[in-house]
Automatic annotation (TrEMBL):
Membrane-topology annotation of the record: Multi-pass membrane protein
GO CC list: lysosomal membrane
Example GO molecular function: L-lysine transmembrane transporter activity
Protein name in UniProt: Lysosomal amino acid transporter 1 homolog
InterPro entries: LAAT-1 (IPR051415), PQ-loop_rpt (IPR006603)
Domain of life: Eukaryota
């Protein structure tokens, strides 16, 4: 409960700070020249994608592999929790902090303005592996959070796999 409360407070504080700072910048600048962040709202003249450079293609490929590996990292834990009907031995603090980190990272990528001459759609396309990695893993961490809620009480008694000794007795061969 304290970690959940901290997560909610930090999330709300971040969102309100970002919106407050955005309003302050709008007042300080000339309203005619101020260009606010219109998330994923590409205008007709910005629909053309900026082509990838060779370095960007390599970075995109490495980022895509990284994103897939990062997404696959949660599947064994979800499966193990489901099979055991228990989350004993799994640190919820770890998942809560990773959820906060992935939320803030995904938000930072989405709130960054594209470079001059780059449309919003092109910007999102160029950063897609990192968005999928952070926000995709966030969704899998939400599944693990639901498992913590579902399996927090009762559940099945430990399976044979959980009761077996990790190391054999000295007399065993």
């Amino acid at each position: 409960a304290p970690i959940n409360a901290a997560f909610v407070c930090l999330s709300l504080g971040t969102v309100s700070t970002v919106s407050f700072l955005g309003r302050g910048a709008a007042v300080a600048q000339d309203p005619v020249t101020f260009s606010g962040r219109s998330l994923l709202a590409a205008r007709v003249d910005e629909l053309g994608s900026k082509p990838f450079t060779r370095n960007e293609i390599i970075g995109f490929a490495v980022g895509s592999v990284s994103s897939v590996l990062y997404l696959c990292s949660r599947v064994p834990q979800i499966y193990t929790n489901y099979k055991r009907k228990s989350t004993i031995g799994v640190s919820y603090s770890l998942f809560a902090l990773v959820m906060l980190g992935n939320s803030l990272y995904g938000l930072s990528v989405l709130l960054k303005n594209p470079e001059p001459g780059q449309g919003e759609g092109s910007y999102v396309l160029h950063h897609l592996p990192w968005l999928v990695g952070s926000l995709g893993v966030l969704s899998l961490d939400v599944v693990i959070s639901f498992q913590f809620l579902a399996y927090r009480r009762g559940g099945r008694p430990g399976t044979r796999e959980e009761r077996d000794a990790l190391l054999s007795e000295q007399g065993d061969s």
